[in-house]
Automatic annotation (TrEMBL):
Keywords: ATP-binding, Cell membrane, Membrane, Nucleotide-binding, Translocase, Transport
Record-annotated ABC transporter domain positions: 5-239
Organism encoding this protein: Oryzomonas sagensis
The name this protein goes by in its record: ABC transporter ATP-binding protein
InterPro entries: AAA+_ATPase (IPR003593), ABC_transporter-like_ATP-bd (IPR003439), ABC_transporter-like_CS (IPR017871), ABC_transpr_CbiO/EcfA_su (IPR015856), Co_trans_ATP-bd (IPR005876), ECF_ABC_transporter_ATP-bd (IPR050095), P-loop_NTPase (IPR027417)
Function text: Part of an ABC transporter complex. Responsible for energy coupling to the transport system.
Length: 282
């Protein structure tokens, strides 16, 4: 199967000389929902901009469906892939929700009936169906983030690159955003790559993680593989998810014989029951 995205980035420097990325190799398969995990300044946004074809001055290659991205036209790239910025105010520009989401399809040459259909479907998908006429300025931060995603869905994007989609949201909003993305991935088959430093959320929702530190890729794997070693995470300025941290402390401080570091509440429950020899509460 051809990866939707395949990146081999030997190095990238910003014009002021900052060495932002080096020796990155990663692939994103069709239908995948994967994360780029890293602390502040590790290079997540830069990597997303390169994957999206915005930043071109790197050494190496990025293939989109097998084609070198720098040889594709903007229409070829942005017909199938789009980037949602961390701050929705950097992305939204129209007065109303409808006008903002309609901009992409209109730009693609769709007639007004088709534009209307696409806007309705996209707003439905992000649970904003009743808010089409609302002034963008009067939306909450989380609603603005949803409108940004709707704008890309209305253009028929099959690949979404999302920069910190849960940043700035309250705990409930974070969960709703992750559920929305999971639904888009599972039900609509959208391939999603999201940059994040939120270690508590990612193991619950994502199937594969790429860990960045100081511009380099230090580990790729399932959440279980990535969160295997607390020491390794501390080296890249990340920590264990709270659930795993709790079991880790009980194991070290109280010598309790937990075998694995669980990443979800369900896994923690299983681990505790196994440690109790299956003698847990009925
Ligand atoms: N336009 C720019 N010019 C020069 N250096 C930049 C520019 N943008 C980012 N950098 C630098 O590149 C490095 C990686 O930055 P980047 O924004 O990609 O990190 P990040 O992981 O997304 O961080 P955060 O989690 O804080 O958003 C940092 O050292 C940053 O200072």
């Amino acid at each position: 199967m051809t990866p939707r995205l395949s990146a081999q980035i030997a190095s990238f420097r910003y014009p002021d000389g900052t060495a932002a990325l080096n020796d990155i190799r990663l692939e994103v398969m069709p239908g995948e929902f994967c994360g780029i995990l890293g602390s502040n300044g590790s290079g997540k946004t830069t990597l997303l901009k390169i994957l999206d074809g915005i930043v071109k001055e790197f050494t190496g290659q990025v293939l989109l469906d097998g084609d070198e991205i720098r040889r594709l036209s903007p229409r070829e790239i942005y017909g199938k892939m789009g980037l949602v910025f961390q701050n929705p105010d950097d992305q939204l520009f129209a007065h109303s929700v409808y006008e903002d989401v309609a901009f992409g399809p209109r730009n693609m040459g769709c007639g007004e009936t088709e534009v209307g259909r696409r806007v309705s479907e996209a707003l439905e998908a992000v649970e904003m169906a009743g808010l089409a006429r609302k002034d963008i300025q009067n939306l909450s931060y989380g609603q603005k983030k949803r409108v940004c995603i709707a704008g890309l869905l209305a253009m028929g994007h099959e690949i979404l690159l999302l920069d910190e989609p849960t940043a700035g949201l309250d705990p409930m909003g974070e969960h709703r955003m992750m559920e929305l993305l999971t639904r888009l991935n599972r039900e609509s088959g959208v391939t999603i790559v999201m940059a994040t430093h939120s270690v508590d959320l990612v193991p619950v929702f994502l199937s594969r993680l790429h860990v960045l530190s100081r511009g380099g890729l230090v580990r790729s794997g399932t959440p279980e593989e990535v969160f295997h070693s607390p020491e390794e995470l501390a080296n890249v300025k990340l920590r264990l998810p709270y659930i795993a941290e709790l079991i880790h402390r009980l194991r070290i401080d109280d010598h309790l014989p937990f075998k694995r570091l669980p990443l979800t509440i369900g896994a923690a429950r299983r681990e505790i029951l196994e440690t109790m020899g299956g003698q847990g509460p009925a």
